[in-house]
Automatic annotation (TrEMBL):
Sorted UniProt keywords: GTP-binding, Nucleotide-binding, Repeat, Ribosome biogenesis
Domain EngA-type G: residue ranges: 8-172, 205-380
Record flagged with keyword Repeat: yes
NCBIfam families assigned to the protein according to its UniProt record, in alphabetical order: GTPase_EngA (TIGR03594), small_GTP (TIGR00231)
GO terms (BP aspect): ribosome biogenesis
Family per similarity comment: Belongs to the TRAFAC class TrmE-Era-EngA-EngB-Septin-like GTPase superfamily. EngA (Der) GTPase family.
Record Gene3D superfamilies: 3.30.300.20, P-loop containing nucleotide triphosphate hydrolases
Protein name: GTPase Der
PROSITE patterns in the record: G_ENGA (PS51712)
Provenance organism: Zavarzinia compransoris
Residues binding GTP 1: 14-21, 61-65, 124-127
GO-annotated molecular function: GTP binding
């Protein structure tokens, strides 16, 4: 019996390419999971908040089942699927009605029969005559009648709803005990950079882990969580879409996004890689703090700087984490070289926080979350207008703006228009003529005086309202 405070959890399972991610997207009402004709796109367990008519639940999208139990990538994917089944109250077992029942479907059915979790058999892609003929072979699986579905077109959802309710009630579970629980998952909300988001301490802090392929992003997330939640291994590119995991750290709810490795654009060759890159960029947009993970042995490369530049462009708080620190021979030289490159190539976020760690051994990982919260606080920084203008007067007196065409440029007044990231409006005569070097001087001063090191700081120039000023 499900406890009063336990939200229903459903797992979508089946062999590769039967439409699990399509059904997942249908149930959560958003395109959170990558969908492609290539088998095996999904490799990690993805979780979302689903709804089916009046039924509310958490739902897991799982990797395609392979009948192997070794330490290969397929074996690791199978263990993730088995864990999702164990963690669920009900399993939606999909098979491809157009392809009919396969030996792999039968092998998976044997595994499910050993589990105590109730199963709803679903014949997906059952639209049309061919699909209905293939669905008729469901009796071979031995898990009762199949619900005929088309996850892509939304057909059969009412039948699925009724079957799920029947299965749960047969187990003594009230399907509607949690109808009003929880807020809408915000992972699919559009981000508007011109609208300030007021911090809600009840909402999870969104943190994305990004970087080049095979630098240890999934291993780091597993180490932070203290469990093998994501598939890891020596193969590059194991993570293909952005996986979010909600977890609590020192009483604060955190939503962690593990993302696909971003390669140079010229090397992104397949449609699937393009989808993965787009998914990673969306995760950066929805995150509030981004951890750029770098392989400390290989050092910082141009692609790392490109990724960092994209994070800054999106206005996110950024932390650099050096992984595999235990394999570095000269710690001091490596750290000095990295910080020099960051200062040269990313001057717009001077003073980026750098954390050294080893996801493999766990050393230094405990420094990461305190750094995340510090970066988040600086990203949310608000400066009172009076204090801001006292600073502006001192800064312009110490280093006056240049004269252009024989006339002095005069910054007059500054106010903060939003946080997240800190954004300021500077009112002055002839704003279009203020050199970029002077804007950098003001930005660096703001960052130093008001403790915003490492955070993007934006200054927008506005013309004075006084039409007689300096004319």
């Amino acid at each position: 019996m499900v406890s009063e405070h336990h939200k229903l959890r459903f797992a979508i399972v089946g062999r590769p390419n039967v439409g699990k991610s399509t059904l997942f997207n249908r149930l959560v009402g958003k395109k959170l999971a990558l969908v492609d004709d290539t088998p095996g796109v999904t490799r990690d367990r993805r979780e979302g908040e689903g709804r089916l008519a009046s039924l509310q639940f958490s739902v897991f999208d799982t990797a395609g089942f392979e009948d192997v139990v070794d330490d290969s990538m397929e074996g690791r994917m199978r263990r993730q699927t088995e864990r999702a089944i164990t963690d669920s109250d009900l399993v939606l077992f999909l098979f491809d009605a157009r392809a009919g029942v396969t030996p792999l479907d039968l092998a998976f059915a044997r595994l499910l029969r050993k589990s105590d979790v109730p199963v709803v058999l679903c014949a997906n892609k059952a639209e049309g005559k061919e699909g209905q003929i293939g669905a008729a072979g469901a009796w071979e699986i031995g898990l009762g009648d199949a619900v005929l579905l088309s996850a892509e077109h939304g057909e059969g959802m009412l039948d699925l709803y009724e079957t799920i309710v029947d299965r749960l009630e047969a187990r003594g579970i009230d399907p509607f005990a949690h109808e009003d629980e929880g807020a809408e998952d915000d992972a699919g909300e559009a981000f508007d950079p011109d609208v300030e988001v007021i911090e809600d301490p009840l909402k999870p802090l969104r943190v994305a882990v990004v970087g080049r392929p095979n630098v240890g992003k999934s291993s780091l997330v597993n180490r932070i969580l203290g469990e093998d939640r994501l598939i890891t291994g020596p193969e590059a590119g194991l993570t293909r879409d952005s996986i979010s995991v909600v977890w609590t750290w020192q009483g604060r709810e955190i939503k962690l996004f593990d993302t696909a490795g971003l390669r140079k654009k010229a090397r992104v060759e397949t449609k699937l890689e393009k989808l993965s890159a787009g998914d990673t960029i969306r995760a950066v947009k929805f995150a509030e703090v981004v951890i750029l993970l770098i392989d400390a042995v290989q050092g910082i490369e141009r692609q790392d700087l490109v990724i960092a530049d994209r994070v800054i462009y999106e206005g996110r708080a950024l932390i650099v984490a050096l992984n595999k620190w235990d394999a570095v021979e000269d710690h001091n030289k490596t750290l000095v070289d990295l910080k020099e490159k960051l200062e040269i190539h990313l001057p717009q976020v001077r003073g980026l926080p750098v954390v050294t760690l080893s996801a493999r051994t766990g050393r230094g990982v405990d420094k990461l979350m305190p750094a995340v919260l510090t970066a988040y606080a600086k990203w949310n920084r608000r400066v009172p207008t009076a204090k801001l203008n006292r600073w502006l007067a001192e800064a312009t007196e110490r280093h006056p703006a240049p004269a252009v065409g024989g006339r002095r440029l005069r910054p007059r007044y500054m106010t903060q228009v939003k946080a997240r990231p800190p954004t300021f409006a500077l009112f002055m005569n002839r704003p279009g003529e203020l050199p970029e070097s002077y804007i950098r001087y003001l930005v660096n001063g703001l960052r130093d005086v008001f403790d915003m090191e490492g955070s993007p700081v934006r200054v927008m120039l506005r013309k004075n309202e006084n039409p007689y000023d300096d004319e």
